[in-house]
Amino acid sequence: MNSQEYKTKTNDEDVLDYRTLKATKEELERIGQTEILSNIERILTQNRIEKPTLHSQIENESTNFYIIDLSFEDIDTIVSMFFDLEVGTLGSNYETTSEATFYAKMLDKWSNLPSYKY
After folding, report:
1. Under 8 Å between Cβ of 106 and 20
2. Is the pTM of this model over 0.85?
3. How far apart (Å, rounded) are the C-alpha atoms in residues 114 and 12?
4. Cβ atoms 14, 69 nearer than 8 A
5. For 30-49, what is each residue's pLDDT tens digit?
6. HEC-encoded secondary structure of 54-71
7. Which of 63, 78, 56 shows the shortest CA–CA distance to 10?
8. Closest-CA residue to 99 (of 25, 29, 23, 37)
9. CB 47 within 8 A of CB 66
10. Lower CB count within 10 Å: N or C terminus of the chain?
């Protein structure tokens, strides 16, 4: 795969980065969502997008991207989880906090997947 194909693939499909999946996995573990958690673990082991041979960080796991092949219902559960986490970490007067901002970013990443929009 060349650099242009890689860029197209990581931008145009149902793709998320390693850090997003890792944080999602941690939150799913925390709330005991074992079925979706096992699907995230499967994605991390089977759905990695191959990096171009000239990628500057070819061995760095944190720069990996993965194809998301979850059902609409699973993605919806994850979106709901991050929405609840965002709201639950707002300040006492509903002002944003660094935690709420983090969860809002996670919520945006999951809710913007093309397969979630259909």
Report:
1. yes
2. yes
3. 9
4. yes
5. 999 999 999 999 999 999 99
6. CCCCCCCHHHCEEECCCC
7. 63
8. 23
9. yes
10. C
